[in-house]
Amino acid sequence: MRVWLLAVSFFLSLICINAFAQRQRCFERSFSTGIKTVETKKNSFDETIMFVNAGLPMMRFDIRQYQAAPANNFTNVSVYMDYKAKKRYVYFVQTGLCTEEPISMRFQPFCIALNAVFVGTDVIGGKLKVDTYEESTDGSKKRISYAQDTNVPVSVVTMRGPDVTVENFVSWVNQTPDVSLFTIPSACKKMNKMKKSKDNVNTKSVIEKVNKILRRSI
Hints:
Blueprint: H1 2-24, E1 31-39, E2 44-53, E3 58-67, E4 73-82, E5 87-92, E6 98-102, E7 117-124, E8 128-137, E9 140-147, E10 152-160, E11 163-173, H2 186-190, H3 201-214
Antiparallel strand pairs: 1-2, 1-11, 2-3, 3-4, 4-5, 5-6, 7-8, 8-9, 9-10, 10-11
């Protein structure tokens, strides 16, 4: 009987340890951060400011895309994900164009995959301790640098064949962004729903980028 109780106690301890580890790999449900992205395939550089409010629940992505050619070519766009209304708005700041599309996905927290493999720990800048994990999903391999002490990601390197994408997270703030940041632009409310927006190259490119970020939520 005593052996059985010890076995049960040990098993429950493993469950608690696993649950604790799982919580530690998930970031705060509400936050804001900057993301600097370089993609070798597209020969481009993007700067994104991301706002997440779990209470609404909504997300906003302010994206500035730079293309190497032609020179000085960039796109300034904001994407609003309204999970309650189940809609996504893509608003091009330069032209005032706005597309609206339905979404079926639910709001989910951002986490490192449960099956991610721990690689090791490094120290950046002589102070910041960073844990590295590897994930294999959707035919690609990701190497994630994660600061456990502050519970924020530092960088994500995604390798798919010869193509490499590097994302660096900066100015991460574990605080709920103000609700005013999620006000849908008036242009999106007045415009007609663009059912042919999937044929718009710029819109497709922006949605593809946002979907890559959203794949980190589970």
